[in-house]
Amino acid sequence: MSILSVQNVTKRYSNHTALDKVSIEVPPQSVFGLLGPNGAGKTSLIRIINQITGPDEGEILFSGKPLSPAHVERIGYLPEERGLYRKMEVGEQALYLARLKGLSRSDALKKLKYWFEKFEITTWWKKKVEELSKGMQQKVQFIVTVLHEPDLLILDEPFTGFDPINTNLIRDELLELRKKGSTIILSTHRMESVEEMCSHIALINLAKKILDGEVKKIRKEFRDQTYEVQFAGNNIAFANALGSYLKLVDTHQDDEYVTAKVQSLNNHSPNEILNQLLPHIEIHSFREVLPTMNEVFIKAVNGTAS
Amino acid sequence: MNFSKASLIIRREYLTRVRKKSFIIMTILGPLLMGGVIVVPYFANTVTDERRTIAVLDESHLFTGKFKSDRMVNFIYLDGNLDSLRKESGSEGKISDILYIPGTESITGLVHGITLYSNKQPSVNIIDKIEHTVENEINSAKYAAAKIDEKVLASIRGTNVEINTRDMENKKTSSGLTTGIGLFSGILIYMFIFIYGAQVMRGVMEEKTNRIVEVIISSVKPFELMLGKIIGVALVGLTQFVLWILLTFGIYTVVSNVLFKDKTEGQQVQQVLQQRMNAVVPAQSLDSVSFQKNNWASELNDAVSTINFPVIIMMFFFYFLGGYLLYSALFAAIGAAVDSETDTQQFMLPITIPLIISVVMVQYVILNPEGTVAFWFSMIPFTSPIIMMVRIPFGVDVWQVLLSMTILVLGFIGTTWIAAKIYRTGILLYGKKVNYRELMRWLLYKG
After folding, report:
1. Residue-range domain boundaries for chain B
2. Contact A90/A128 with Cβ under 8 angstroms?
3. Which of A48, A282, B69, B363 is the most buried (most CB within 10 A)?
4. How does pLDDT run across B108-122, given as a tens digit for each residue?
5. Which candidate from B210, B219, B447 shows the least CB-CB separation from A100?
6. B38: closest CA among B263, B362, B259?
7. Contact with chain A for residue B441, Cβ under 8 A
8. Per-residue pLDDT tens over the stretch A54-104
9. pLDDT the model gives residue B45
10. How far is CA A198 from CA A31, A33, A160, B65, in A?
11. pLDDT number for residue A172
């Protein structure tokens, strides 16, 4: 059963429709990428899931039950537009936000101690937020989001403002939380983190869901018979070898080998392609190239736009 | 409504404000400033300014010895030529002014003929003193010409009727005191609505510009956040108010014991107080007040005993809270609708106007606390917190009070309902210039 099931959700504002019959199933313990161009309706959907606004039509089930205010405590949300009270002390503020999520004071303190020690930031406790750098504030925000050990984590662009080291730190923590049982919804424009982390995605464009499913399957669906061939030999021979079978997409040469990307023109199988090439060049490696999520994204969005 | 979360919000809003340096400073400064309003004019009166020396050049010889020197001015009589005297005194000299009285056949000719030449602009007090002296002389001359005995006239003029105001239980009342109490509590409510309403607005704007608001409303409902802030700030206001009363009382006790051991001095302070009040209240309303009499204190005690303080205090807290809740919800809505303090102006105006109108109407209401104007302004919830509070010490029919209270409660439920709708949409909207049409559209959004 999905931990979150969005069913035919529609949200209209006075002059536009933000979501048009969007349905999404988020499997438990998945890292679910919520993708889409700017203004597609992702934030509207996220706000509806967080019960900040309500849908005009449709229903949302959390662990099979209609979404209710009690579920707030089982969801952790890191919005894209995020901030902290600048004049408040870090510790006091973290405690306040944790308690708003329903933790008792002693529980919250215990958990905060654990995270502050883990991130080695115990010295920040008495500091005012305005004394911290942007990245440091983001760390505090991350802790506050995950502190109450939510079943569902919703993170909107969680990596902005982090240096590569901290990005890795946060990514590892997220994967760790997933291992412990949390489900993560990740809304981001960084397609490399989608490839790296997400097991499932949904792509929203112009208020409609245009694509969803497992990342592996989607990339296979979008494959376009592109192969990467690494060979030794001269380029003219290679060009001859392509014949009417293959189209050259890209080549580059290093000290030893030429690496070329070719696309099959007539749905030939890899073996057939290899047979075509073998007589002409010395092949060192041959593999199918799956489209990157970046390519999938662009292709899918352009497909709906036209 | 989740009360445990709402109480967390109230707690935070309260503690962050009460711990601020500005709160502590204002709490200490408030009573000192209030005390200052009373004490400074008193000392200002006793402190002698630089004494002016006025040379009297009396060519009519009618005023010899009539101008009396005091601690403000020193009159000296000189003979000589006006022009040369003016030249001599033009540079820095002992003489600061020259009072020139031309020669005349009849003293009544002096009504317009007298001139005061000065190095520095003389104060109104000095001019008053001189005019008074001249007027007295002219009047004396007129009485003499009409063969009227001045002493007889003075005794006739001296009639001073004083009406005892007593309630039906034959207790002494004082319309001066009731006016004072009404005025004071009305103005206090006005100040608190403005100061703390603006605090609510700034708090909402802070959360919006900090971008923390979305984090918080994923845990609590926007309405709970708004209400938590409003209640938290109200408690800050009440705390400050109570502290001010305690501090003022403390300071008053200390000051009156240390500074005004002398009874007459104490009375002088009371007189200054009275003058202050005259400046604020239209004079006719206080004509019958007998503050200046010697038995001021005992009469005051009598009058105080007729005033129903428990009722007034209860009413004060009700109208204080009701008015604050009504307005602060609107202030919160403004804070949510705008991105920066400069954008607040256009929305502040409609809120400010009824408050200003209330304060302007206070002086009419005091003159006629039972009138039609007073009645209607004490029913409209936007003006009733101030106007009704001014009326209450005079005694208002129970049905009127109950009606006004009911309307006020309905009024603040109404403004809170409207504000909540604007707030809910506004806090999540960044970088958009909002106008009234846009606000109307927000009101119509569904949940």
Report:
1. 3-41+172-444, 52-151
2. yes
3. A48
4. 778 888 888 888 888
5. B219
6. B259
7. yes
8. 899 999 999 999 999 889 899 999 998 888 999 999 999 999 999 999 999
9. 65
10. 5, 6, 17, 106
11. 94
Tell me whether residues A82 and B428 touch, CB distance under 8 A: no
Question: H or E element: which one contains A187?
Answer: strand A183-187
Rounded to 10 degrees, the C-alpha dihedral B405/B411/B412/B416 comes to: 160
Q: Band the pLDDT of B283: cuts 50, 70, 90.
A: very low
Angle at A78 between CA A112 and CA B447, to 5 degrees: 120
Residue A257's domain spans which residues? 224-289
A51 shares its domain with A100: yes
Which residues in A lie closer than 8 A to residue B442 (C-beta atoms)? none
Chain B, nearest residue to A87 by Cα: B16
Q: Are A244 and A229 in contact (CB under 8 A)?
A: no
CA-based nearest residue in chain A for residue B203: A85
Window 196-235 of B, Cβ < 8 Å to A: 206-207, 210-212, 214-222
Question: A227 and A207 in contact (C-beta within 8 Å)?
Answer: no
Per residue in A75-91, is it b (16+ CB within 10 Å) or e — as a string?
Answer: bbbbbbbbbbbbebbbb
For residue A266, give the amino acid letter: N
The whole-angstrom distance between B444's CA and the closest CA on chain A is: 9
Q: Any idea what the CATH number is for the domain that residue A97 is in?
A: 3.40.50.300
* B220/A56 CB distance under 8 A: no
Q: How many CB pairs under 8 A join A and B?
A: 66
pLDDT at residue number A46 = 94
Interchain pair B218, A97: CB under 8 A: no
Q: Regarding beta strands A57-62 and A4-12, do their DSSP bridges make them parallel or antiparallel, or are they unpaired? A: antiparallel
**Which residue would you say has higher pLDDT here, B261 or B192?**
B192
Query: Count of domains in chain A?
Result: 2
Contact state of A77 with B218 under an 8 Å Cβ cutoff = yes
Q: Which of A14, A75, A83 sits opposite B212 (nearest CB)?
A: A83
Compare CB distances from A84 to B12, B210, B217 and report the shortest one's residue: B210
- Percent of chain B residues topping a pLDDT of 90: 26
Tell me what pLDDT residue B269 has. Answer: 57
State the residue for tokens 């001073």.
Answer: B160
Superfamily of B52-151 according to CATH: Periplasmic binding protein-like II (3.40.190.10)
The Cα of B328 is separated from the nearest Cα of chain A by a number of Å equal to 21
Mean pLDDT of chain B: 82
Are both A61 and A182 inside the same structural domain?
A: yes
Cβ of A47 and B206 within 8 Å?
Answer: no
